[in-house]
């Protein structure tokens, strides 16, 4: 029987210290459980038993020697397959990278290796992180562990499903427009998108470089704080990363009570699913019971966020994906008469439909004659969206909103209609455009639903602290 697989980071650490189990036993149990459970969920693309056992033994040796171990030492983690772990595949769920193996470690991986964390394997995603359901993967669909007929959300659907189904203690995902928070909401786990620049993007296969951030998917807010603290910080390999003296650690209730929370009227509109409305209202009521002040606020440019994102993101994606040309990376078309034909065939055959759609959109909005009308204008609108947040944060410390307009939808429900798929990110995208930190925290409901706390730049401590208090009172 499986007894260890549903532990949190904190409990694994305690169990290792009290010698209830060894790190190797723990890793073995996870692989046994994955062999049984992942047949139905399909969260993983690659498993790395050998690598995991080597890492687990490091922890066991340290404990046997009486050395102190860090809180992540020996903890089994899953990693979205768009981050590089040296020697392992990194497919980004695309055929074009099917046979690619990472030549180096992403900075987040390097940091976690120093902590002796254990990597169980790489998880499924929408191709190049383009999507909201993990249905755009070239290697199969991941299912929502709470209801196998439904999607786990996306694009970090594999990581969210792995944590929700207890096939990993925690996981890493990436978030460009909601890809950590929306699957966290759909799968009933916690997902944190850090402030842009808080975590290095080196070794993350880029979707849209001015929006992408790596962050944790975990079972508790406390675990999210632990993992975030381990991966954050300035990295000379990512010029956009910064070192800030971020506050960490748990706050007391008195300090949390001083936070003011804003409820933006534009985010509580008709069309919001009843279940979501109820769940978010429950969260608001619970937080109110802590005697925290709420205030209605307005973010008037929110209504342009989706349009703005679907210009900026494809523009950056089309530039980033230009490197996949059949020469420098990944697969190559078998037959071609000349170089331009080789490019065309490789890219035409190996990219999936959504990747092709975004490359075409992005190339169009950047082309001369259209650049000013679309791309330059979208950049100006982005500024207005950011200004809304800056103004609001003069009055409140945290903004509370839904994560997605609906709970997890059925597999296949939105695949024919890209626009309705894009709409599922309506509440998460403004946060990426403004570069802010935000967390999705599950509300206890039948089908999982999360609520979102958005913080001021580099104030992860605010949302993590309030989140931890919410968790305590909602159990
Ligand atoms: N679902 C959004 C998109 O398709 C966000 C993706 C992401 O955050 N990686 O672009």
UniProtKB/TrEMBL annotation:
Designated gene of the protein: gatA
Protein name: Glutamyl-tRNA(Gln) amidotransferase subunit A
Active-site residues annotated for this sequence: 80 (charge relay system), 155 (charge relay system), 179 (acyl-ester intermediate)
Catalytic activity reported: L-glutamyl-tRNA(Gln) + L-glutamine + ATP + H2O = L-glutaminyl-tRNA(Gln) + L-glutamate + ADP + phosphate + H(+)
Function: Allows the formation of correctly charged Gln-tRNA(Gln) through the transamidation of misacylated Glu-tRNA(Gln) in organisms which lack glutaminyl-tRNA synthetase. The reaction takes place in the presence of glutamine and ATP through an activated gamma-phospho-Glu-tRNA(Gln).
Enzyme superclass (EC): ligase
Domain Amidase: from-to ranges: 25-464
Gene Ontology MF terms: ATP binding; glutaminyl-tRNA synthase (glutamine-hydrolyzing) activity; transferase activity
Catalytic activity, EC: 6.3.5.7
An example Gene Ontology CC term for this record: glutamyl-tRNA(Gln) amidotransferase complex
Annotated family: Belongs to the amidase family. GatA subfamily.
Sorted UniProt keywords: ATP-binding, Ligase, Nucleotide-binding, Protein biosynthesis, Transferase
Keyword Cell membrane: no
Subunit structure: Heterotrimer of A, B and C subunits.
Gene Ontology process terms (BP): translation
Recorded superkingdom: Bacteria
InterPro entries: Amidase, Amidase_CS, Amidase_dom, AS_sf, GatA
